[in-house]
Specification:
The complex is a heterodimer. Chain A is built from 17 helices and 13 strands. By secondary structure, chain A is an alpha+beta fold. In chain A, the strands form 4 sheets. In chain A, strands 1, 2, 3, 4 and 6 form a 5-stranded antiparallel β-sheet that branches. A 4-stranded mixed β-sheet of chain A has the order 5-10-9-7. In chain A, strands 8-11 form a two-stranded antiparallel sheet. In chain A, helix 1 packs antiparallel against helix 2, helix 1 packs parallel to helix 7 and helix 15 runs antiparallel to helix 16. Chain A is globular. By secondary structure, chain B is mainly alpha-helical. Helices cover about 70% and strands about 0% of the residues of chain B. The longest helix of chain B has 24 residues. Chain B starts with 8 loop residues before the first helix and ends with a helix. Classes of the chains: A alpha+beta, B mainly alpha. Chains A and B meet through helix 5 of A and helix 2 and helix 6 of B. The complex binds adenosine-5'-triphosphate (ATP). Adenosine-5'-triphosphate (ATP) binds next to strand 3 and strand 4 of chain A.
Chain lengths: ~450, ~160
């Protein structure tokens, strides 16, 4: 854990490159072995192969640290970009720690706040209590209050670009896809990672969203301290709580799970429907659960805002009178860049079907006042929808890069939300009043 | 070129040591951590007058040969290292190796020099890359000084010689 020595982090470009190379060789070897086995025995389990490869990639990622692991996690969040087996592996990926030395911690404070930690807190633990992908978390006390202090690793923000370019070929080979088909995704990753390194922005977002969602029951957003934060340092209130994943694995009482699920859904719905600006990274690692089953939201590094006009055309699709009216449906889909004027008949048919299917799945829970998310059929449909797109060659053509950025953010958020609710086996009330405000 | 000699290295050095000692944690640090703290503090102090120090350091072409502009600093630094090495040897953090141990100070000086040159040319935001280099190179150097692989290697060689006799 955090007392591992710093020299174990392969930050030099050469060290990283050789690691990437080594794993792609191993993956290649597995692939050959797999094909060889397949030739002999037709019954080789496709999943077994994926699993083995995911393990290799996973091992590499956990060594590379920093942005590389983050990319893997993001890709696993993005329904469809990674097949199910990988997605599960990476969603669980924990950061094996790299720790900054005590003197470097002090140095970082002096650089960014102008004072040593023991000058600004009543007490400060130099050894980190948690190590994350782009920073580490320390415990501190001030005025009798326990604080969590997040410190960003030096050089992380600057190495994002080269990190991504290093992992990209590996992913491409791994998944058998072409660079140009996923270029935009990688650009998005880069943008997101860069954003996550901006702690000043994160602080602003956290304070803003906390205010908006003040009235949501069973929800806790830690208080952030502006005067004790800076570009690479974030100070917030410490909340004693367990990781969401642990709660999911151990909690037996379904009522408690429902309460957590309800808080999560309300948290996102309020920000999406009332403010069109939301936490767009709902994966289990970003939430904690307190003893009295309240949901704690951490990490406001990925907050997205969608334009009002886009919001309306997106959620109009939830309304039956729009969805069932081919003319209105078309207007909406064009607005969302799912359909384009001038598409050939075949292309149009393909996208029309896919879009309609996707919307039907995502909006299903918004059509009733309560929804049971533990339904495996519903969840599998969501999952397979992405894999279908991944496997269909038509979607790899350049003309197939569809959907505006905003649609991608929303899909990802809902997919993340529904996945957690599925794991909670939650039955949740849906406040559908937002629908009345949508008119096109 | 006369300007090269105008630095008051001992003022910078003393300030760095004094600043280190102001930190309550410093006394409890291991030799490795003390070295880290010293380097970060030293860099902070010269950062206050960044242009002056970078332009001087950038002029130095052959850093590893005796350099009159840096000689005063080298002496001060070596004295500091001697105490650290003694401290580390007593605590078991550093391995006393016959003959080789005389070069430990030189090794640390070279580490420090390469950090200084890197710092002078570092264009990263807030010279963060230098922080990474300090961290890595100090750990690396102290890993060499620590008991470990090298000693088992030396032990092996000695044994091979014995066996051949
Ligand atoms: N306010 C807090 N109270 C208690 N624990 C916290 C708090 N903030 C962070 N932690 C702990 O530190 C861990 C890492 O924090 P966080 O997720 O914010 O970092 P991160 O850099 O976003 O990590 P990653 O990018 O890997 O998800 C959390 O999983 C949590 O266990």
């Amino acid at each position: 854990m955090p007392d591992k020595k710093q020299d174990k982090i392969p930050t030099s470009k050469v060290a990283r490159a050789s690691k990437v190379f080594r794993t792609s060789m191993k993956v290649g070897a597995n692939y050959i072995k797999h094909n060889a086995q397949k030739a002999v025995n037709r019954n080789v389990d496709e999943n077994a192969f994926d699993e083995k490869n995911a393990n290799e990639l996973f091992k590499l990622m956990s060594q590379l640290k920093g942005s590389a692991l983050k990319i893997a996690q993001m890709m696993s969040m993005d329904n469809g970009l990674l097949p199910k087996v990988y997605a599960e592996k990476f969603a669980q990926a924990q950061n094996s720690a790299m720790a900054l030395s005590g003197p470097l911690v002090v140095n970082t404070f002096k650089k960014y706040i102008g004072k040593a930690p023991n000058e600004i807190y009543d007490s400060f633990k130099v050894n980190a209590v948690y190590a994350a992908s782009i920073g580490q978390v320390h415990e501190a006390y001030k005025d009798g209050k326990k604080l969590a202090v997040k410190l960003q690793y030096p050089g992380v923000a600057e190495s994002i670009h080269s990190d991504i370019n290093m992992v990209k070929p590996l992913f491409l080979r791994f998944l058998g896809i072409k660079e140009k088909d996923v270029r935009e995704y990688f650009e998005e990753f880069e943008e997101r990672l860069t954003e996550e390194c901006d702690y000043e922005k994160e602080l602003r977002h956290a304070i803003q969203i906390a205010k908006w969602t003040e009235h949501v029951p069973n929800l806790i957003i830690p208080k952030y301290y502006k005067e004790l934060s800076a570009k690479k340092i974030l100070t917030m209130e410490w909340i004693d709580a367990q990781p969401l994943q642990q709660f999911i694995d151990t909690e037996k009482d379904q009522r408690k799970k429902n309460q957590v699920g309800q808080a999560l859904l309300d948290f996102l719905h309020v920000s999406i429907h009332q403010h069109h600006e939301f936490h767009a990274d709902p994966h289990p690692g970003n939430f904690l659960i307190t003893k009295d089953n309240k949901l704690v939201v951490l990490d406001f590094g990925c907050v997205k805002k969608i334009p009002k006009d886009f919001y309306i055309h997106y959620f109009a699709l939830v309304k039956d009178d729009v969805f069932n009216d081919p003319k209105k449906l078309r207007i909406c889909l064009e607005h969302l860049d799912m359909l384009r004027k001038g598409d050939s008949k075949e292309v149009e048919a393909l996208f029309y079907d896919t879009a309609v299917k996707a919307i039907r799945n995502l909006s299903m829970p918004m059509k009733s006042d309560t929804f049971y998310f533990g339904d495996k059929k519903f969840y599998d449909q969501l999952q397979s929808q992405g894999e279908e797109i991944l496997n269909n060659k038509e979607f790899r053509k350049p003309s197939a890069m569809r959907g505006s950025k905003h649609a991608i953010y929303l899909h990802r958020t809902f997919f993340g939300l529904y996945s957690i609710l599925y794991k909670l086996n939650a039955t949740v009330n849906i406040d559908r009043s937002f629908i009345d405000h949508i008119k096109i | 070129m006369d300007s090269d000699l105008q630095f008051n290295w001992s003022a910078v050095f003393d300030k760095a040591i004094a600043t280190c000692n102001e930190d309550d944690n410093y006394a409890g640090y291991s030799a490795r951590e003390k070295m880290l703290a010293f380097m970060y503090t030293f860099l902070q102090i010269i950062s206050e007058d960044e242009n002056k120090f970078t332009s001087f350091l950038k002029q130095q072409r052959i850093p590893f040969i005796k350099n009159p502009g840096l000689e005063e600093l080298r002496k001060l630094f070596s004295g500091y290292c001697d105490t650290l090495i003694l401290e580390g040897t007593n605590s078991g953090e550093i391995q006393a190796r016959p003959f080789v141990a005389n070069y430990y100070g030189g090794l640390l000086w070279n580490t420090f020099l390469s950090v200084l040159y890197y710092w002078a040319n570092d264009k990263s935001e807030n010279k963060e890359h230098t922080d990474v280099l300090v961290e890595k190179s100090v750990h690396f150097t102290f890993d060499i000084l620590a008991p470990g692989v090298i000693d088992s290697g030396l032990d092996l060689i000695q044994n091979i010689f014995k066996l051949r006799k």
